[in-house]
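Let's practice the habit of predicting before peeking. Look at the sequence and jot down your guess about where helices and strands might fall. Then scroll down.
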Amino acid sequence: MLFLFFQIFSFSAEAQKSENLASKPLFRDPVFDGTADPVIIWNKKQKKWFMFYTNRRANDSTAKGISWVHGTRIGIAESTNGVNWVYKDTCKIGYKLPGITHWAPDVIENKGLYHMYLTIVPGIFEDWYHPRFIIHLTSKNLIDWKFESKLKLASERCIDASVFRLPNGTWRMYYNNENDGKSIYYADSPDLYNWTDAGKKVVNERGEGPKVFQWKGKNWMICDTWRGLSVYSSEDFINWKRQPKNILEIPGKGIDDQVIGGHADVVVNNGKAYIFYFTHPGRTPENKGIDNYQTRRSSIQAAELELENNEIVCHRDNPVYINLKQP
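Done guessing? Here is the structure:
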């Protein structure tokens, strides 16, 4: 009887583990197949995890130039455990412009209210040389978003906000100032509404999509440098030291994961750090210079971060078991 009990227990444990095994890819957008720039937050009311992401019209064969990365709203997927994701909807953003484009949101919760810092491109364009800026929105349900303000930052070409609360209670926003060599700048706020730009860069290296988080007793920042993700650490949140090796630079072996990883979010949960990133599966060396649906489409992937010799590493081909708990 005891032997039978252990057999049943072992089987149940393996079944539970299998249920939490992240698939490759983790998620694809069913509308445009162009999901990118994920950010993940716990929905307190619905008791689910929400993934917000930039969407691009990868499957639009009529799009000219780079217009396919414009003209879409932020997508939402939901999950109870962080591993099984289902498409839900798009965000209802209370900020209207003709042909508006929504990019790279960051979403945080404070005192029962959700705040989104969203990159706006005021139109649909066939090249990269146009203004973009960051706006602040608030929501009680993570679906309907009220416009609060347009942020005054270092230039009129600022994207990819990442908001983090400093130990002294101040809120800090890191972002990409495209007018200064795509460097990472920052602004501070006492209340998430009123922002003062520092007017200086904290990362000189070209990159975008900064993400700041605390893990294993250290402060970390990752950035998308188009050859995987660069990793930095800091004691004061201003002076950032780069570790020698990027993560997600060496292509993996999984489905849709055989290329570099891009613009990511990190969720620290129950002591573990999970990275959610996107890939362009068709952008392989043999497809260099080709612009079609296969090179445009993108997928969300997940992996677990590890600390080795005081540096963050990511063994993307290792099985990753995710069971995010309510924070």
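How did you do? The chain has a mean pLDDT of 94.
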